[in-house]
Amino acid sequence: MSFHRTLIPSLALALLVHLAGALHVPAQEDVDGAPANAVAFFDQAQDLHEKGKFDEAIKLYNKAIGSVAEFPEAEYQRGDAYLSLGNIEESEKSIRLAVAHRADWSLALAKLGEILVRRHSLASPTDAVAIRAEASDVLKRAILSDTGSFPAYAALVDLQLGSNETDSVLRTTLASVKRLTDGKSKVPASIWSARAALEDRLKIRVASRVSIAAALTTDP
To answer: Any idea what the CATH number is for the domain that residue 35 is in?
Structure first.
């Protein structure tokens, strides 16, 4: 499974009102000349994140998180930065915090599901059972929150194919994936690839080749 970085747009306008009463960092303290508040820390961290400076971004995400009681957006982005560094354990911890503070956030649920699917693929047979159950639950929650969640469906397909799920379950998932793709534009390659993999497992060979072709001609 590949992990894709998702940067959240600047929260300066959206969060100023929400965070104003909770900030406790002195307004006079500066970081690279910017006012030291949670939004400023977050925006600076995102800039570093986008430039691939993950360690530096994490430090500023930590400052943003430490500046307000709950900041799920920063917790999510910190987890994403840790993931880019290959630190799965810290990534999972941070994403779990984001989910704890915003339980219906599909993006964070899908990311947690992706991490659990990866852990499932590497786990011992004993541990895999519990990880699979949690991953399935988390991804279904993500889809319930956002029925068009591409990341959640891609991860769910990976999980089901890696778990030797029954054909009946795979056909149900394929029907849902078809609803995301048939007649739709701007469908990511990951979803076409997931559809192709399901069709191949179910021996729907011609359709699988069509889906593979769509994946190869679609932006990631």
So the answer is: 1.25.40.10
